[in-house]
């Protein structure tokens, strides 16, 4: 068996590669999109926590890409910049579980968002495993397009719920930093 490097991504991260790599993450209510272009062997994955951030929510990359609208744009743009054809993109989405005790169904909102986003962008979703009460461990091989999805048990669910809650609680403590200059005043 050939050893391949593994890369683990966390909330707010995006990773794209042409190398024979396995990209891994663990999802609770978060969503990951696994996207690749089979013709050029290029692919990547994102991991976002909330469906959408407003126009004033850019901040640094990890803070802005915690939102689906920024994480999806970032991954798709990175792949296109590296030579991926939008017309050949294969998309698989995972996550959106109901693992956090909350009045709002964040996982469900994330799932609805990503499917609507893909439709609006004219991208078809080949595989979707969204919703339910379980956390998931995802392993994506961009070269082959193979995804291994494992549902996690109650002990792992508690750990994922704790990690997502800690991340969400920490967001309020960290000011959004950075700036994006779209137009320069003359």
Question: What report would you give on this structure?
Answer:
The chain is α+β, with helices and mostly antiparallel strands. The chain has a single domain, classed as 60s Ribosomal Protein L30, Chain: A. Helices cover 28% and strands 27% of the residues. It is built from 4 helices and 9 strands, in the order βββββααβαβββα. The chain has helices at 61-64, 68-81, 106-120, 154-173; strands at residues 6-8, 13-17, 22-27, 31-37, 42-47, 90-95, 125-130, 136-141, 146-151. Strands 2-5-4-6-7 form a 5-stranded mixed β-sheet, covered by helices on one side. β4 (31-37) and β5 form a beta hairpin. The N and C termini lie far apart (59 Å).
Topology:
Layout (H helix, E strand, L loop, with lengths): L5 E3 L4 E5 L4 E6 L3 E7 L4 E6 L13 H4 L3 H14 L8 E6 L10 H15 L4 E6 L5 E6 L4 E6 L2 H20 L13
Notable traits:
single chain, globular, 186 residues, alpha+beta, 60s Ribosomal Protein L30, Chain: A
Measured between the Cα atoms of the first and last residue, the distance is 59 Å
Estimate the mean pLDDT confidence.
83
Total DSSP helices: 4
The biggest sheet, with number of strands, parallel, antiparallel or mixed sense and barrel status, is:
5 strands, mixed
- CATH top level? Alpha Beta
**SS-derived structural category:** alpha+beta
Residue share in helix: 25-40%
Please tell me the CATH architecture by its name. Answer: 2-Layer Sandwich
Q: How many strand units?
A: 9
Overall structural domain count: 1
Content of β-strand: 25-35%
List the uncertain runs.
56-62, 173-186
| Rg value | 16 Å
Order of helices and strands: EEEEEHHEHEEEH
Q: What gross morphology would you assign?
A: globular
Task: Please list the strands of the largest sheet in the order they lie side by side.
Answer: 2-5-4-6-7
CATH names the topology as: 60s Ribosomal Protein L30, Chain: A
């Amino acid at each position: 068996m050939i050893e391949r490097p593994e890369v683990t991504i966390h909330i707010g991260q995006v990773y794209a590669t042409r190398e024979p790599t396995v990209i891994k993450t663990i999802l609770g209510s978060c969503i990951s999109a696994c996207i690749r272009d089979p013709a050029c062997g290029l692919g990547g994955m994102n991991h976002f926590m909330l469906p959408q951030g407003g126009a004033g929510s850019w901040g640094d990359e990890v803070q802005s890409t915690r939102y689906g609208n920024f994480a999806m744009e970032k991954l798709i743009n990175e792949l296109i910049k590296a030579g991926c054809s939008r017309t050949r993109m294969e998309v698989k989405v995972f996550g959106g579980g109901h693992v956090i005790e909350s009045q709002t169904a964040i996982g469900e909102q994330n799932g609805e968002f990503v499917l609507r986003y893909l439709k609006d962008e004219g991208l078809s979703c080949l595989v979707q495993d969204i919703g339910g009460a379980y956390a998931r461990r995802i392993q994506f091989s961009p070269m082959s397009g193979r995804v291994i999805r494992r549902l996690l048990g109650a002990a792992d669910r508690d750990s994922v719920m704790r990690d997502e809650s800690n991340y969400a609680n920490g967001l309020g403590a960290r000011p959004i930093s950075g700036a994006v200059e779209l137009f320069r005043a003359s």
